[in-house]
Amino acid sequence: MRILRTDEDRFTGLLDYPFSPHYREVEPGLRMHYVDEGPAGASPVLMLHGEPSWSYIYRHMIPLVVDAGHRVLAPDLVGFGKSDKPASVDDYSYSRHMTWLKYWLETLDLRNITLVCQNWGSLLGLRLAAELPNRFQRIIVANGMLPTGDTRAPAMFTVWKAFATHSPWFPVSRIVQLGTERTLNKHELAAYEAPFPSAEYKAGARAFPKLVPVSPDDPASNANKAAWKVLDTWRKPFITCFSSGDPITRGVDRDMQRRIPGALGQPHITLRGGHFLQEDSPEAFARIIIDALRSEMAA
Question: How do residues 268-298 score in pLDDT, each as one tens digit?
Answer without folding.
Answer: 999 999 999 999 999 999 999 999 998 765 5
